Amino acid sequence: MKAQKFWPWLIVTLGAAYFLIPLLATFIFSLRMRRNEYTFDAYVSVFSDPKFYATFGYSLSVGVFTIIVGIFVVVPAVYFVRLRMPWLRPFMEFVTLLPLVIPALVLVYGYVRLYGSSSLIPFTGSILGTDILLTCAYVMLAMPYMYRAVDNGMRTIDIGTLTEAAQIMGASQVQIIGNIILPNILVAILSGAFLTFAIVIGEFTIASLLNRPAFGPYLVGIGTNRAYEPAALAIISFIITWGAMGMINVLGRFAPRTSARTD
Amino acid sequence: MPAFLEVQNLVKSFGTNTVVKGVNFAFAKGEFISLLGPSGCGKTTILRMIAGFERPTSGTIRVDGEDITHLKPNQRQLGMVFQAYALFPNMTVGENIAFGLKVAGMPAEQRRARVDEMLKLIGLLGFDKRYPYEMSGGQQQRVALARAIAPKPRLLLLDEPLSALDAKIRVSLREEIRAIQRDLGITTVFVTHDQEEAMSISDRIVVMNSGNIEQLGAAHDIYNRPATRFVATFVGQLNTLPAGVLAGTPGERAIRPELISLAPRPETDLTLTGTIADLHFLGSVQRLRVDIGGTLVNIDTFNNQTSPLQRGDTVTLHLAQKDLLTLGA
C-alpha cells in the first residue's frame, strides 16, 4: 500500500467498523440463544410466532396502500407544479419538508383530536376508518421522500415538450400522465416507493397510538419481553431494507435513456 | 384558391411585451410555408398559437374554414415536429408512431399497417422495435416526422426541426421532408431562422421581424425584389453601395454579389474599378472582396480555369442599372 493511500483507507476502515461491528455483534448475539452453541433458534422462534406474520402482513398491506395513495397525490402535483406553476416550487419544497420537522407524536395527537370518535369526522370510530387514517398519516410521513424522488425523476425528462408532443397528437391530460409521464419516471417512483415501504414497516409511534397491530409496535413489544429474538428481528429488518435498496439499484438499470447516439 | 390556413389580426402579448403585432396571412391546401426571421421575431409564437400551446391575445386562426382559435391542442387534429425530437423515451419507434392512432381509437390491426406504411415512407422499415436512444439524431427526427403525420393531421407544424442536426443530415433531411410533404399534399408550416433552408424548400415564405410580417412571397420574389431593407439584408448576401460610389446614381444602392461580373455582359451598363482585397476559392464559385475607394464589395464569380486572380490585382467590375436595389426604410 502506498503511503498516500494509507489515510483514505484508514478513514474508510474506521467508518465501516463503526457501522459493521454493532451489526456483527447483534448477529452473533442472535445466534447465542442456546448456551455455548451457535444456532438459529432465535430465528426459528421469530418465524414460528403467528403474530410476526400477522403484524408484518398488516404493515405490508398498509405500506402498499400508502405507496398507491402517495403516487396519486405526488405525481400529478409535481407534474403540474413543474409544468404550469413553477413559482410554487419553493413552497412545495417547504411543505414537503414539514413531516420531517413535526414530530409524529404531535401529528397523531392532532389526528386523534380532529378525527376522534366524538368528533365531526370520527375516523377512529371504526377499524377501517382507523386504517384509512393510518394510511393517510404514512402518506404524509413518506411525502418528503416521495416528493424528492418524483421531482428528481421529472427533472431528467423534458416533460414540457413531451406533454406538448402528446397533446398535439390528441392525448388527454390523463393519457399523458398515464402513458408518458408515469412510465418515464417509474424508476424514480419505485425508489420513492421502497423508501416509503422502509418507513412504514418500522414506524412505531402512530401505529401504536392508533392501536393498530402493525410491525413496529410488535418489534417494540418483543424487544421489551425477549432477549434474543429482538436481535434476530433486527437482522431480519436489515435484510428486508437491504433487499429494498438492492431493488432500487436493479430497477435503475431499466431507467429510460433519453440521449441520442452521436454517430 | 380558397384559404386552408387563415390567420387574421393575430396578436400575442406577454405582459407589456407584444411579440406578435397583428399578423395576417392565408394559405392554400398543400402549400409549404416557412416562417423566417431572426430569433425573437415572433415566428415560433405564431406556430405555437396555431398548435394551441399559446392563447392569442386577439385575432383568429382558421383551418379549413373552422375557427380553431379557442380549441385545445388535442382537439385541433394537427401534427407537429419539435426541435428536440421529443420522442417518448419509454416507447419503441413503432409505439411512438402508433401513439396518435391509439389515442384516436384506431384498432391494433390498422395501427400496425399504418406504422409500417410510415416506416417505409421515412426509410426506416424494420426499426419499429428500436428505442429512441438507440438511434441517431437524424433517425429520431424522421421518426418524429412519421409520428406527426401518421394520424393524417390537417396541418403539419415544424418547429426548427433541423437545427439540432449536423450540416450534412440537415440538407438531406430537409429534402426528404419536402418530398414527403409533396407526396402527401399536406399543408405545412415550417419555422426556421435559416434563410437558405427556407428558400430551398418553401412554396412561400413569410419573412418576419419584431412581431410584424416584412414580406410574404415565393423565395424568388423575396430574394430578387425585397420589400424592405430588413428583407434585403436578412435574406441572402447583399452589397450596399453608399451614395457617390456609382457615378450618376444619387443615393444609396444595393446589389447581390452574383450580379457583379469581371467581364462585360450584354446588359451591363455600369463599371467600377477597384483592387482585390481578399479572395476565397470555394470550388465552383470564387468569392472576391474588392476595395472600391474604401467601400468593400463582395463578388461571386464562377470558377475560371485560365486566369487565376491574385490579391492586389486591379479589376473592373461590370454591373447593370436594372439589377440595383434601392433600399427602403
Rg estimate of chain A, integer Å: 23 Å
CATH level-4 homologous superfamily of chain A: MetI-like
Give the number of helices of chain A. 12
As for the number of domains of chain A, it is 1
- Determine the mean pLDDT of chain B: 90
Which stretches of chain B of 5+ consecutive residues score pLDDT under 50? none
Give the H and E element order of chain B: EEEHEEEHHHEHEHEEHHEEEEEE
Mean pLDDT of chain A: 86
CATH superfamily of the largest domain in chain B: P-loop containing nucleotide triphosphate hydrolases
Shape of chain B: globular
Keywords:
heterodimer, A: 263 residues, mainly alpha, MetI-like fold, 12 helices, 77% helix, globular, B: 329 residues, alpha/beta, Rossmann fold, OB fold (Dihydrolipoamide Acetyltransferase, E2P), 2 domains, six-stranded mixed sheet, four-stranded antiparallel sheet, 16 strands, 26% helix
3D structure, described in words:
The complex is a heterodimer of chains A (263) and B (329). Chain A has 263 residues and is mainly alpha-helical. Chain A has one domain: Orthogonal Bundle (MetI-like fold). Chain A has twelve helices and no strands. The two termini of chain A are 43 Å apart. Chain B has two domains: 5-233, P-loop containing nucleotide triphosphate hydrolases (Rossmann fold, 3-Layer(aba) Sandwich); 239-323, OB fold (Dihydrolipoamide Acetyltransferase, E2P) (Beta Barrel), CATH 2.40.50.100. Helix content of chain B is 26%, strand content 31%. Chain B has helices at residues 43-51, 93-103, 108-121, 137-149, 167-184, 195-201, 219-224, 229-234; strands spanning 5-14, 17-27, 32-36, 58-63, 66-67, 78-81, 155-159, 187-192, 204-209, 212-217, 239-241, 253-255, 270-281, 285-292, 295-302, 314-319. In chain B, a hairpin with a 2-residue loop joins strand 14 (285-292) and strand 15 (295-302). The radius of gyration of chain B is 24 Å and the shape is globular. The model of chain B has no long low-confidence stretch (mean pLDDT 90). Classes of the chains: A mainly alpha (263), B alpha/beta (329).
